Amino acid sequence: MCGRMNISDHEGVQWLLGILGLSMSPVQRPRYNIAPTQTLDVVGVIDGESVLMPMSWGISMKIKGKKGQPITKRVPNSRDDKVWTSYLWRYLIPEQRVLIPVNGFYEWQRENKKLVAAYHITPATGPAIFFGGIYKKPKNEEDLPEVSIVTTRANDAMQKVHDRMPVILTSANAAGAWIQENDRESLDELMLPADNDTLNFTRVSDYVNKSTNEGEQCIEPLV
Fold it and tell me: Cα(34)–Cα(161) distance, rounded to whole angstroms?
């Protein structure tokens, strides 16, 4: 899936956004360990124009707590095989889609449910990539929309670490189609595993495991 992201190379993200004719504020602090509930800058369409907008990572849903009382949970990822049928996603996927620009993300390899290795996963070509996302509009104007990363089954390279991976839009045409197309067939064709040579995998230390840890130490290769 995807539970943590790196958006630390501002120039790299600017380069990616430039493909769509967009740019970010020139003042951006590096963020090496972004966790759910934090704010992301995403690309959406308003009145036919691509725009950059802030959203909160993780879509709220009500579930039963330990005592049977409803509690709110933030869900950072959605599944390609459920976005058209799940009550949580099916009203969002037809028209409420965005692009999430990132420099990389983290995934954890497990053995018998135990964490054994953390990986920083980055694009093999270029400094940044777009993930496909869907979002939920807020009930109150003062609140941010909530965004979820759409995931698909892992390719062979990713299978060594995890069985799911983000939907990655690897070209300007694919990125544009994700936020502009309306028919299900076209969108389903975009929700496929990326090619095996799309990503690089770098093992990093367990410093990144704690979401409050920040800085370059998160992405330092483990030697």
Answer: 20
For residue 39, the domain's CATH number is: 3.90.1680.10
* Residues 49-106 pLDDT 10s: 899 999 999 999 887 777 777 888 899 999 999 999 998 899 999 999 999 999 999 9
CB 167 within 8 A of CB 152: yes
Q: Where are the beta strands (DSSP E) in 35-156?
A: 39-46, 49-57, 59-64, 70-75, 77-79, 97-102, 104-111, 114-123, 129-136, 146-153
* In a domain? residue 145: yes
Our count of domains for the chain comes to 1
pTM higher than the cut 0.90: yes
In a domain, 223, yes or no: no
| Domain enclosing residue 186, as ranges | 5-218
Q: Is residue 95 part of a domain?
A: yes
